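Model: You mentioned two targets. I'll fold them one after the other.
Researcher: Yes, keep them separate.
Model: Target one:
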Amino acid sequence: MALTGIQIFKLLPKTNCGKCGVPTCLAFAMNLAAGKVELIACPFVSEESKAQLAEASAPPIRPVTIGTGTGAFKVGGETVMFRHEKKFENPTGIAMLVTDTMPESEVAARIERFNKNVYVRVGVKLHADAVAVKSESDNAAKFGKLVETVTKATEGGLILMSENPEVLAAGLKICATRKPLIYAATKANAAAVAQLAKEHSCPVAVKGASLEEIAELTAVMNQAGIKDIVIDAGARTVKQAFQDEIIIRGAALQKKFKPLGYPTITFPCEMTANPLKEALIASMFVAKYAGIVVLSDLKGEVLFPLLVERLNIFTDPQRPLATTPGIYEINNPNENSPVLITTNFSLTYFIVSGEIETSKVPSYLLIMDTEGLSVLTAWAAGKFGADLMAAFVKKSGIGDKVKTRRLIIPGYSASESGGLEEDLKGWEILVGPREGSLIPAFLRNLKNQDKK
């Protein structure tokens, strides 16, 4: 059971050194109890207290990392049933299925889609996370060859799928260093699969006919010293799989039932043959509450909406969605192009950049870090004033890109124009429109004036 802030405080060194980022040990204890900080932030906690606190502060659903390097992704670690309570921690992993009975051309085409279907939205790179390599032939050599093909072709995470330990061993011989998810340990093969997982230090998925059987299997894995576990409740009908997801999450979070305190894996690819229905089912599991969803393929019209949904659901609702600060070139600008500046609130960026594109006027857009706040909110909070804007313009390097130094500020920050003229010597400060829809006309009018 989780400790209270006072109980945690009793285990801390009580030095009030402030090195954890807060002034007192009591404040740190309260933050730790609320899940706002990690124990590692305290440099003086004793090893004995560290052991007690680490166990007490561990999330009720264990975080599990699959893969290594740039291809690694984490699932689990969740602490709430509903996003508005706090936030969801680790985005649902999206995996693509390939099997050892598929033609080589089909495998190659799917891997190509896995590698190429990458999107950038609000400065975030969106892509699938893993390839699920399934043995349908039950032939170890054939499975090993497919695993080798996939391993060489992609850096993504791997899921090795077979209930035959010998087949799994053949796949692990190829890619164990990539730390794949071993799928799956069942009642019949639990001991053998546990040995493979322990030998290669890989996470393992357990699959049962019921939640009771799942709880027994996770206990077996724990007794074998395996902690990184993923659950497949076994259901392949939408209704039952959906119910199982809710029951597992509720049991772990609300009942503190440790045998079910692990992320889950679901298989929309096995619930329908209709690609669009499969996408709909997957979207449901992204929201409620799958750690991994396995799709039959990764065509753009299916993958992109799921990635955007995942981005939205796993964004902290208490923090605005922000765009990466920096210089954005729109419509192929040159040294005589105007420079516009705005905040890094993502909606502001999308509106302003879209209107600049519509204008067809080559321009530079400076996105300034205002902690994701909109123009008015950032200005009112003192994060979008003349001094900060001037410092950002100088530091950004935009002065090296333009000869005609003309800076256009948002209409809502018109009062900062005077201060900017003082702080940015050699720059002409123009006040742009208040509404984004007026930007195209403003830029075109500016361009026409330059021609005259």
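Model: Target two:
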Amino acid sequence: MSHHLVEAIDVYYAYPDGHHALQGISFRISHGESVAVVGANGAGKSTLLMLLLGLMFPARGEVRVGDALVTRKTLPLVRKAMGMVLQDPDDQLFMPTVFDDVAFGPRNAGLDEREVARHAESALQAVGISHLRGRAPFKLSGGEKRAASIATVLSMLPDILVMDEPTAGLDPRARRMVKDLLRGFSHTKIIASHDLELVWELCERTLVLTQGTVAADGPTRQVLGDAALMERCGLEVPYGLRACPQCGFTPATGRPTANA
């Protein structure tokens, strides 16, 4: 079985206040897939990510990463396979320099300094910010911080990248930079986002959550282009998938809709 495999089997989770965040979630993500998790606020996206990473555990059902059932005993294996890029880069960057932040994981894993440097430099090069290695993180732009936070994860050589709102709070230029960066990765990617334009450009598959259940799971353009589904789930069809009301032209396909 691939170490890149991520699977949820009939997963339920309720918070102590009685809120049922997830109610029977099931899906399977295979090697190399780029999968979006979308839904309105409160749909269960953040809860699902925390369960995948073993930050919380299901009340019922199973979460698997590769061959491992996600439990407290298997957390070291799960955390090695999966790397999470947090929504706010400032929560991920805390060292004096960018290099130190990117090197933190390998150092914490007990690698010798030569290996630490190799991992860190490789990750910095992968996201195109080697020139920022000596900069203080708090002096970086929003896009640079996002790239640095991704590098901190890549330095640990994860099989799976998990990203929570990777373009949140970014200006258009920084958003484009992050989008181009993510497009170039061959990792298995799980992206939770409200940015549906990003989703349809980067993810070939989309899971739509609503009230703790999977409302849809399928090809991104098919799922996000379903206006009735989007409305039912408190979402909107991305502009790139909307047909012009006058001529029927759809930007994503470059041609009129079939019934235009």
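Researcher: Noted. Anything on target two?
Model: The chain has one domain: 6-256.
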